[in-house]
Protein: Phosphoribosylglycinamide formyltransferase
Organism: Keratinibaculum paraultunense
Amino acid sequence: VNIGILISGSGTNLQAIIDNINEGNIDGEIKLVISNKKDAYGLVRAEEAGIETLYLDRKEFSTDEEYNKKIMEEFTKRDVELVVLAGYLRILSKEFVQKYKNRIINIHPSLIPSFCGEGCYGERVHKMVLDYGAKITGATVHFVDEGTDTGPIILQKAVKVEDDDTVESLKEKVLKIEHELLPEAIKLYCQGRLSVEGRKVKIID
Ligand code: GRF
């Protein structure tokens, strides 16, 4: 399966995918990594892995729709079938989500539907978990639909919130789970083992 990946930051999730492909766990090939941030370290990780990269500056486009159209063009040129958002912080256009229906996978650092949605991303998620006094948190991998963090859930895994946890310690615990779940979901997709019926994702054994 040809994979296209969107990033905005350090790319530790991207690295986990690269490592799993290299270990033969995922029957897929990353054809292109696009970042909306020029200094995203994930671009370096991709280049070091010999993967084509592209930085797309949002300011060079008149609208979000034009920006998304360019992304779709680049992915279509490379016959990308599966799109992965690995720490990508921009919203996708309706056209994009419709074109790749149930073929865009996102990772979110909480147990959706808790601590997610507009403006709830990155370290803010862990701060909200701590401020709320939640006893467990975790990560969610889901297909992307028109909403923010609202698409059908593929995999989730929980971790306990300890009394002495900080944003940093929680982020570390959750990232470890992310680095397990995202490659696992991509592996299952590439094996054709994910079946989506409405909101429900079933894993075919
Ligand atoms: C992390 O907050 C992760 O939970 C979320 O995106 C952020 C960056 O992750 N998915 P990465 O290290 O760039 O993969």
Summary: DSSP finds six helices and nine strands in the chain. Residues 9-14, 42, 86-87, 107, 109, 122, 178 surround 5-O-phosphono-beta-D-ribofuranosylamine (CB under 6 Å).
